[in-house]
Amino acid sequence: MSNANTVSDLPAAVVLLSGGLDSATVLAMAQAQGLRCYTMSFDYGQRHRAELQAAERVARAAEVIEHKVVGMNLNGIGGSALTDDSIAVPEGPQDGIPVTYVPARNTLFLSLALGWAEVLGAREIFIGVNAVDYSGYPDCRPEFVEAFERLANLATRAGVEGDGFRIRAPLQYMSKAEIVQAGVALGVDYSQTVSCYQADADGRACGRCDSCRLRAEGFSAAGLADPTRYR
Length: 231
Known about the structure:
By secondary structure, the protein is an alpha/beta fold. The protein has a single domain (3-222), classed as HUPs (Rossmann fold), CATH 3.40.50.620. The chain has 8 helices and 5 strands. It has helices at residues 3-6, 21-32, 50-62, 105-120, 142-155, 157-160, 176-185, 210-222, and strands spanning 12-16, 36-43, 66-71, 124-126, 166-168. The chain has a 5-stranded parallel beta sheet, sandwiched between helices. Helix 2 links the parallel strand 1 (12-16) and strand 2 (36-43). The N and C termini lie far apart (47 Å).
């Protein structure tokens, strides 16, 4: 009998876990709802690979049922400062969709999470996208989340048979300060997370990229000490 069937009778969920602040908060929220959580991270050729070690730490501390790392070669496609070393990570706010946007990233991530969820019998998939304090990525918008949920229930046997999926984005309308406050209340150890787009091999943040800026502003606005390790 599989581990998924013996640990508990509680419903299962797949949580996308990048190793950053938002996804760690989402995992804590899912567990607070009594869900058996399986976490999934992606080694997609990102320059900030320290986030993968951070995801492992967060998953281990949360005692998830299983943590899976899936490899894909998005740096072979390029087109983003996060996957193409010839494109510099910008330091400071940008107009429009920034060059740190990774083409089709959340679509691919959710698709693989959907496949695993169907195998596990999980019917909820959690993702830490946000439409308030975020960098302007099109695949973080509520319209995208709603559209993917419709796709998930059209494209799967479970959906067709009436036992469909929910794409959960609990941070969607929260400010970064509200996210930090919620995570602290749930016991999230943010010192274990890595958000920086160009963190070094030890996970130390640059303190200058857009992700570092949003994270620092969130702790400041929440009135909490920032546990981020800077180089």
